[in-house]
């Protein structure tokens, strides 16, 4: 069907939308790259940019959010490394003959490995959720927001990525 004759632009400023507000105050849904911040919403309708001050605050918030993603990745890496060392120090035998004060719980490698794996899985899920949310922020297709995400990744890596490769293994953000 040819939709070329249809007007997909904004309605007259005086018309009311379904939500009771004016149509010119609705979130814009740009699907092409833009620098325009008029009626920009970041992921949620409630995160609506309506002024220069809210734009600046929002861009700073996006930088911090992207930095916190890098912090979560760093925490996950540290947890995994510490658990690997701790598990390696536990006895291999699933039924140790005696427990020492160091092994007061009587835990062995298999048990500890399973517990650590559940926590690592939760951290992995949190990282993926966070990465996809940052991807949605980036997909506002707004140049200012895209730069804010990239700056957050840059500063986050500077602060939290000292021991990691700059090569990413997760492409979502």
From TrEMBL:
<dbReference type="GO" id="GO:0005375">
    <property type="term" value="F:copper ion transmembrane transporter activity"/>
</dbReference>
<keyword id="KW-0186">Copper</keyword>
<keyword id="KW-0813">Transport</keyword>
<dbReference type="Pfam" id="PF04145">
    <property type="entry name" value="Ctr"/>
</dbReference>
<keyword id="KW-1133">Transmembrane helix</keyword>
<feature type="transmembrane region" description="Helical">
    <location>
        <begin position="53"/>
        <end position="72"/>
    </location>
</feature>
<feature type="transmembrane region" description="Helical">
    <location>
        <begin position="129"/>
        <end position="160"/>
    </location>
</feature>
<dbReference type="InterPro" id="IPR007274">
    <property type="entry name" value="Cop_transporter"/>
</dbReference>
<keyword id="KW-0187">Copper transport</keyword>
<keyword id="KW-0406">Ion transport</keyword>
<protein>
    <recommendedName>
        <fullName>Copper transport protein</fullName>
    </recommendedName>
</protein>
<dbReference type="GO" id="GO:0016020">
    <property type="term" value="C:membrane"/>
</dbReference>
<keyword id="KW-0812">Transmembrane</keyword>
<comment type="similarity">
    <text>Belongs to the copper transporter (Ctr) (TC 1.A.56) family. SLC31A subfamily.</text>
</comment>
<keyword id="KW-0472">Membrane</keyword>
């Amino acid at each position: 069907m040819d939709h070329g004759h249809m007007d997909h632009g904004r309605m007259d400023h005086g018309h009311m939308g379904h939500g009771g507000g004016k149509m010119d105050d609705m979130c814009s849904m740009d699907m092409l790259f833009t620098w325009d911040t008029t009626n920009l919403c970041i992921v949620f309708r409630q995160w609506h940019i309506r002024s220069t001050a809210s734009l600046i605050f929002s861009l700073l918030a996006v930088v911090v959010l992207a930095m916190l993603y890098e912090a979560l990745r760093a925490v996950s890496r540290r947890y995994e490394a510490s658990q690997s060392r701790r598990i390696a120090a536990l006895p291999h035998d699933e039924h140790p003959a005696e427990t020492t004060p160091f092994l007061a719980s009587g835990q062995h490698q298999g048990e500890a490995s399973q517990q650590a794996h559940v926590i690592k899985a939760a951290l992995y899920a949190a990282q993926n959720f966070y990465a996809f949310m940052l991807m949605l922020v980036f997909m506002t297709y707004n140049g200012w927001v895209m730069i804010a995400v990239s700056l957050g990744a840059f500063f986050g890596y500077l602060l939290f990525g000292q021991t990691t490769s700059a090569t990413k293994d997760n492409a979502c953000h």
